[in-house]
Structures are given as structure tokens and as C-alpha cells.
Design a protein that fits this description.
Radius of gyration of chain A: 17 Å
Oligomer: homotetramer
Strand order of the largest sheet of chain A: 1-2
Order of helices and strands of chain A: HHHEEHH
CATH architecture of the largest domain in chain A: Orthogonal Bundle
Number of domains of chain A: 2
Structural class of chain A: mainly alpha
CATH class of the largest domain in chain A: Mainly Alpha
CATH topology of the largest domain in chain A: Arc Repressor Mutant, subunit A
Largest interface: A-B, 27 and 27 residues
Strand content of chain A: 5-15%
Number of strands of chain A: 2
Largest sheet of chain A: 2 strands, antiparallel
Number of helices of chain A: 5
Distance between the termini of chain A: 39 Å
Chain lengths: 119, 119, 119, 119
DNA sequence: GTGGTCTAGACCACT
DNA sequence: GTGGTCTAGACCACG
């Protein structure tokens, strides 16, 4: 069973932070396509949160089609590689945007930001 | 007088967050080289912190040679453009590193991270 | 616990005088390399100053790398003998300079000042 | 008329500090052997002290035979070169002692203190 | 009015 | 108990 380190700040709802961190765990391959996730209770213990909170986070991921449920068997990462790629690329775009925004904040243009990266 | 919006989280000391935000304000040109900063007390009001806390943050910036003090006159941004550039480029390097780290976390390599940026 | 006698004049900030006297205590070996300093509060009592003032002085010494902090344990003299020697020799140079300056003031040249010492 | 800059701290009697500073002015040659000193009133103005205080300081110097008074004419530096030399050498000894004491305080021996001086 | 210093007193995390 | 942070409030020198 793949163990994850969860970390939270007090600024935003815990379940949203769980969603983010689980999403990262999945697209990064920590939980590969088609693999079975630890049980809700196990995940809740890892994260030191209430199982209900973890359940809420997983429901979010499911409605996103990143995971699916097999009735009596547990939750699995989607086998749809395209879906995974799409989410991953969405996250990547966000990070790119964050990078550009932060650079803009200190007065560095988009073009310069790209040059900086290559050093 | 240039007004800044300060924002804090409860995770790290306020004075350190002040240092960071003032540093950004300076390298971004919000307070240009050689210009006079608002008084310690004014800045403290803007940030809604105790003047002593603001004083501590400014002392940090001064020991970093980003600002200097004219005893009874106020505090000024350094006129040393090279110093400013050095700090700015230091901040930029940090952001670049953060970007690569975040991308690595979702399983995207350095090379791919650079490509992503150009889209 | 090594007790120090602190003395102040009213000309200069107390915390700077604390820095000087603590620095001397350390390089002289009153607080040996690697040894634990009395707690901030104890030192404050010894010096009859507010703990915050002592804290400020110790922060100065720490940024000078003469001491380091173990978070919940206390503050310790650096183990870096070279650092200690460097500081000590810096202080010595200052004293030499003071001596020459004072001798010059009463009209005694550098060369004569050296001779005087050997008597 | 030779002008002197007087400086005082609040720790010791002003007149004693005047004595010290005048003594230095004399042995250093600022007021050469046999030369006439500015009047008590002039000296008092220079030092921004009450003429009585200056008078007391000069009396001290006179009892030390560093200066002498010509009734209606003013005060003069002694013409006795040997006296001047003796005072000067007394001051020098004091400075040497101070130097050794200060070096001892930071843990440097007499022998090492002499070596330090030659660098 | 400016920055700087100092005290008193409180609260925090960590172990 | 340790160091660290923060606030409130006061006083100082300087010009």
C-alpha cells in the first residue's frame, strides 16, 4: 500500500486540500492507472482526518472521473490514460500560470521568464 | 506614497512575511531605487501590525542592503542597481526552482517543464 | 552556569553593549566552543535587562555565527574554532588600532609605541 | 589661538575630564612648552562649561606643574621639558596597561599582545 | 515628524 | 523549561 504524506493549512477546507494532494498522487503515478487505492478508512488514518472528510474528497475525484468505485471491492484509479493525461496537463497549466504570475509580480516579463528557465 | 496590500498566513512569523512582501515591492519597482519608503509607522498601519514588528522586518531588509536609513528623515530604497538586480535574480531563481519542483511532483521532467512553458 | 558581570554606559544602545560583552566572554573562553549558554531569561536577569533586549543581542551574535540555537534546548557557542579565532583576531586588531590611535593623540609615533610596549 | 574639541560623558566629573583632555593637548604639543594658553573664559567657552569648572581643571594642572600662572598675564605651559616628558610617559604607561588589560580580557597573553602589535 | 530602543507582559510550539 | 514572536506603550535624539 502506497503511503502518502498529507499536509494541510488552516486557510482552506481540508477536503479540498485532500482532493489536490490525491490528484497529484494519482497523476504522478504514485497510484498508477487501474490500481486499487487504499481503503477510505486507511486513507483517513494516513491523513489524520475524519473518514467522512476523506469520503467527500474521493467523491470529488470520482465525479472528475479520475477514480471509479467497484461496489464491494474498493476504489480504483481510472484506466483511461487520456483522462489522466488531461488532468495532468491541467495541473501543469496551472503551475505554468502560477510561475508566470509570480515572475510578473517581481517585474519579470513572460519572455524573460522563459529565458530564466533555461539557465 | 505608494500603498501596498499586505497579506499573511498564520504559518510563519509575520515579520518574515513582511520582509518577503516588501522585498517583492522593491524589486518590482513599486518602490523605485532611491525612493523614500513610507514611515515605519505608516507601513505598520498599512500592514495592520505593531510598529515594532514592521521595524524588525525593515531592519532585516537593511542588513540585506536593500534599503538604507537617513536618521531623522526616513528609509530609502538602495540606489545600488546591481544590488537590486542581484536580489531580483535571486527571487527569480527561487521561483524557477519552485516551478520545477512542483512539476516534478506531478511527474513531469525538467525538459518537459520547459516545453510546457512555451505553449 | 558561568555568570558574567555586565556593565553599561548610557551612551550606546544596551543591546550593542551586550553583544560586545558576550562576544568577549565567548572568545575569551568564559563560554567555551560548543558549550551551552545560560538561557535567554537567565542572561537577561544577570544583565538586569528585559529578555527581549537580550534576545536581540543574541540574535546579533547568531547572525554573526558566533552562536547557534537548538530550538527547544538552548543556545550554544559555535564549534567552529576558525570562526572563533577570526572574531578574536578581529577584536585584537581593534584593540591594537585603539592603542596606536591613543598613543598618536599624545604625540607618540607608531614605532615608539611598539618600543613602549616592550618595557 | 589653538582650539580644542572637548567631549564629555556623564559618568565622571566634568572637571576631571577637562584635566585629562587638557593634559593630552599639552603633552601632544597642541599647546607647546612655554606657550600661552587661551584665557580661562575662552577655554570655558570652547568646552561649553562654566568658567569655574575650567578654573578648577587648570588649578589641577598647575598643582601638577604642567602649567604655571603669570599674575596678570595668563597661564603658560611649563618650560620644563623633563616635566612634560614625565607626564607624557606616565600617560603612555597607562595606555600600555590599558592595552594589555583589554587583550587579557579576550584571552591574549602579554607576549602575544606584543607580537600582535608588530603585524 | 523621523527612526531607534527598551520594558512589560503575553502567547506559541516544541520536548 | 526552551527559544521565538508579537503587541502596547513609553521615551530618546535629531532637526
Amino acid at each position: 500500500m502506497q503511503v502518502i504524506q498529507f499536509k494541510f493549512d488552516n486557510e482552506r477546507p481540508i477536503y479540498l486540500q485532500l482532493v489536490e494532494q490525491l490528484r497529484i498522487a494519482i497523476v504522478s503515478g504514485a497510484y498508477p492507472a487501474g490500481s486499487r487505492l487504499p481503503s477510505v478508512r486507511e486513507l483517513a488514518v494516513m491523513a489524520k482526518v475524519n473518514p467522512n472528510t476523506m469520503q467527500k474528497a474521493l467523491a470529488e475525484l470520482e465525479s472528475d472521473q479520475l477514480i471509479f468505485t467497484e461496489r464491494t471491492n474498493g476504489k480504483y484509479v481510472t484506466k483511461d490514460q487520456r483522462r489522466l493525461e488531461k488532468i495532468k496537463s491541467g495541473l501543469a497549466k496551472e503551475l505554468v500560470q502560477n510561475y508566470f504570475d509570480a515572475m510578473a509580480k517581481i517585474g519579470i516579463t513572460r519572455a524573460e521568464s522563459i529565458k530564466y528557465l533555461q539557465k
